[in-house]
Amino acid sequence: MRKSFKKIDREFRQHWKNYVMQSLLATTSIFIVLYFLSLQHAVIIASIGATAFIVFAMPDNITAQARNVIGGQLVGLFFGFLFSLFPQSTLIYSILVYSLAVGATIFTMVVIDTEHPPAAGTALGVAMTGISLDVFIAVTMSIILLSLIHKFFKPYLRDLT
User: Fold this and answer.
1) Rounded to 5 degrees, what are φ and ψ at 115?
2) In the list 81, 87, 100, 116, which could disulfide-bond 68, CB 3.0-4.6 Å?
3) Mean pLDDT per 10-residue run, the chain (161 residues)?
4) C-alpha span between 67 and 91 (Å, rounded)
5) What DSSP character marks residue 65?
6) Alpha-carbon separation of residue 102 from 7, 77, 121, 125, 144 (angstroms)
């Protein structure tokens, strides 16, 4: 246990500027998302938070690439919207519909090579709450913002994991 604290302390001391800068970039991007979405969309907000973690803490990971962030999240939005159109008549039927939204999102992301795990959360959130213009704009703008920050700051981003 003591050894792991030394490792954390050593890595933090060496690269503290990266830790601070990348956390502030994530904070700023999530602030923008929260500004446009209400807490009614908590699952979608959590999904974008997970995307921010991947982009800023694991910038070298394939799931942090713009193709995966944008492609995966758009797939999640699409299937969340599609399955939100199904009538929610009973609890078991609703659970089945939400599960299918996540499963279809995962299947499609893998087939078209745009794997981005948080997009499954986006699909679930949209299937549960439905989609509105605000949700579509907020998710689209946040994934574009995260991808642009990732692209332009890539030379300064360090894998923190």
Assistant:
1) -65, 125
2) 116
3) 62 88 91 76 86 96 96 97 91 93 98 97 93 87 91 92 83
4) 35
5) S
6) 37, 10, 7, 10, 22
